[in-house]
User: Fold Lipocalin/cytosolic fatty-acid binding domain-containing protein from Panthera leo.
Amino acid sequence: MVPQRGPLLLLALSLGLACAQQTLEEVPVQPGFNAQKVEGRWLTIQLASSRAHLVSPADPLRLGLHSIWTRDEDVTFVLFWTGEGVCQGVNVTVHPTGLQGQFQGSWEGGNSMHVCFVGTDYSNLVLYVRLEDAGEVTSLWALLARTTPGDPTWLGKYLEYVRELRLHKAPVFNLDARCPPAE
Assistant:
């Protein structure tokens, strides 16, 4: 009798994906992190994900980070969906977890997001985002900078994480400005 390969294949794929996922306790965070110092405009230099299909270059709709702001202890990410005839701003606010440099938030349907500020000199920033959507976990790692092309030292640190965690590079979309006013 030939064993069925379906369950073994599923197990192998699950283990492979698990290697790319890290628990929040395993993710390093910036010692002495000060959220107010990351306020302002940021450009995405590199982006990687545990899921190769997360951001398709063929998709006409793009999501890009514009800036990061704080209010009290909360951190808000200002994002914009852009595409053919579409431009919509989205603010995502996360709250301190009680652990240095770690924040969490949730949105419709019980989905959640955990954010770890892995490392920063406040001109460059390595960010880890763990999204949990209907039981699926996706890890995103981003290298952000105040100006392009960014610091080569920070790029090296970031690429080391990408290699170690076997992440998939994703397309980067930066926005020059907020959505134009409606006519």
Notes: The first strand starts at residue 40 and ends at 41. The two ends are 69 Å apart (CA to CA). The first helix runs from residue 6 to 20. Strands lie at 40-41, 43-49, 62-71, 74-83, 86-96, 102-107, 111-120, 124-133, 136-145, 168-169.
